[in-house]
Model the fold of this input.
Amino acid sequence: MVQLTLPKGSKPTRGKVHKAPAGAKNVKTYKVYRYDPEVDADPRWDTFEISADDHGPMLLDALIHIKNEIDPTLTFRRSCREGICGSCSMNIDGRNTLACTKGWEECSSSTISIAPLPHQSVVKDLVTDLTLFYAQYDSIQPYLQSDEPDPEKERIQLPEDRAKLDGLYECILCACCSTSCPSYWWNQTEYLGPAALLQSYRWIADSRDDATDKRLDDLEDPFKLYRCHTIMNCAQVCPKGLNPAEAIAKTKKLMVAPGRKKTEAA
Done:
């Protein structure tokens, strides 16, 4: 049988253990990924035992409590605390989600693991480098492109056309979907990933946008779009309940629609 081993530095070691104070009640155990590439040779798991009575119901509350009261060096992103900005996306209890909307009571394990988004370079601890992710979003030109002159007030859109954008515009670019996708792990620099492709279809489906053919031509590539194999991890982890795989499937259907004309640039 073939024996496979992880590269050096890939497997976290056992880190510090912070015990709960004597007499603490309702104690929860959090196993938190720690790694500073500028200082640490290997990543580690630090364990924090804290009373849930000392913080709010969400995992972000626990992280803030740990940083404020136990270890100020713990690093993570956060902003709105309302599931709107997407800053606190991370892997909690083995699943990509937002720390601000994931309650510790929802976790299945008695020891709750908290790690950075998978298959991303770690900047420090729970913060990953999303430079490529945002560059891919920028590449799909996420803005209205119209051949009509700018109106004096607003661009009129029928209610039924506006309804086609439901399930698309709500994306908060948290990267939970893309970093849960095996196809994105394997082809990260070529495949745009679920988030960027969902955003791409959001503009393709917009009745006010006149660049549909050009947008489709820009995706005419063996990797950008077609590395999606409908694994559906993206839909399972999206904290907003969106379905990027469905948007990708609709885009593929438009690519081969009868009568579709390619732009001159293509």
About this structure: The longest strand covers residues 27-34. The chain has a mean pLDDT of 93. The CA atoms of residues 160 and 207 lie 10 Å apart.
